Amino acid sequence: MNRPLLSDDDRTERVQRKVSEFHSGTVQEVSKAVENSPLVVVGMAQNPIVAKARRALEEANLEFTYLEYGSYLSQWKPRLAIKMWSGWPTFPQVFANGTLVGGNHELRKMLEDGSLQSMLDEAPGN
After folding, report:
1. For residue 3, what is the DSSP state?
2. DSSP symbol at 9
3. Residue 1 pLDDT greater than 80, yes or no
4. How far is CA 3 from CA 8, 74, 84, 87, 88, in A?
5. Domain range for 113
6. What's the pLDDT tens digit per position in 64-96?
7. Is 32 domain-assigned?
8. Is residue 96 part of a domain?
9. What is the CATH number of the domain that holds 74?
10. What average pLDDT does this structure show over 10-19?
11. Per the structure, how many domains does the chain have?
12. pLDDT per residue over 39-55, tens digit each?
């Protein structure tokens, strides 16, 4: 089930342009990492939940790409652009083989039940 989004028909061209350009460099950076790395964590400094997700992956001996955008006191607009792009409301955002799997809670469940490793094993070339 998809969350309803305002259609482009219900936005002026100026609004459409502003939305598409909003921190587009950040979105492109994240998108490229997600495309090129099997496991990506997008987070922010000073967030203990992001730290827990990273620690869980390290303890599982899984290599991952980590992208950090500011802290509670900085870079909120680039983080907002990432949220608009992914549709996920919080950090961390964890991607496996190009698919958003969720945040820390979802990551931990996938580590426990083995579904993250299975997903990573399904990557082309494995």
Report:
1. P
2. G
3. no
4. 15, 28, 12, 9, 11
5. 14-121
6. 999 999 999 999 999 999 999 999 999 999 999
7. yes
8. yes
9. 3.40.30.10
10. 96
11. 1
12. 999 999 999 999 999 99
